[in-house]
Amino acid sequence: MNFLTTTQQVGKILSSIPKMWDGRKSILEMKESGFPHWKQMEWIGFYFQFLCEHYLAKVIEIPGPRYGNVRFDGLKDIPWDFKTHAMNTSSHQIIVNDSQATAQAIKDYGAVGLILSIGKILYNDEKRTFQKWHQALKGGKSKYERERIKRGAWSRLRKVSFNLQQISFIRITDDTLVKCGSFQGDFRNSNGNPRREKILIDLEEIDKELVYLVEF
Predict the structure, then answer these.
(1) Is residue 37's pLDDT more than 60?
(2) CB atoms < 10 A from the CB of 209, how many?
(3) How far apart, in Å, do the first and last CA atoms of the chain sit?
(4) Which range is least confidently modeled, 76-90, 124-138, 184-198?
(5) How much is the pTM?
(6) Considering only 111-120, 144-153, 197-206, which range has the smallest mean pLDDT?
(7) Residue 185: φ, ψ to 5°
(8) Which of 40, 68, 166, 180 is least surrounded, with the fewest CB atoms within 10 Å of its CB?
(9) Dihedral of the CA atoms 106, 36, 157, 191 (nearest 10)?
(10) Closest Cα partner for 59 from 95, 8, 117, 127?
(11) In angstroms, rounded to a whole number, what is the distance separating the alpha carbons of residues 126 and 148?
(12) Are 63 and 52 spatial neighbours (Cβ–Cβ below 8 Å)?
């Protein structure tokens, strides 16, 4: 099965996923289903991963191949990652995956794929009611939150809901990496440890890599 056929098959399936994602309902859905990432602050990206794992289980091998400590989300002809991006932001860059793992996967499979959900985000109100609700559901402040407070770092507004507008299928090759030439470093994981270098892709620079689109 070639790349375009795969994206059309997967796109048809994902065209039936919910368009409106309410934060409380989505988190409770993940929690009740036993999905391990329901506690994460960036719940929107994990909810899309949750939906992909549910809807695509019969057509994509989930999870995908592992490279060291890095694992791709799925495998169908090539390794795939499931990502989410807010369209109501000034940035058109997205963090893809570990640079070493991506380079090796491209060497092994010829390319890697990105299934990217794009939509409009509504952020928390000034009283942070959603943040407080999620924190209480988790049983209080996480270790990462306590460490953030100790460091004196600012607390980001929480994303309350997501209105899905489109799902893009992007093919990443060595040529893509050369074109982007941008990497993310000096960031921290949720446990506060330094994050391995990851690839940044500018969506405005990769028109040729966008091979299929599902609009809602």
Answers:
(1) yes
(2) 21
(3) 26
(4) 184-198
(5) 0.86
(6) 144-153
(7) -140, 175
(8) 68
(9) -70
(10) 8
(11) 20
(12) no
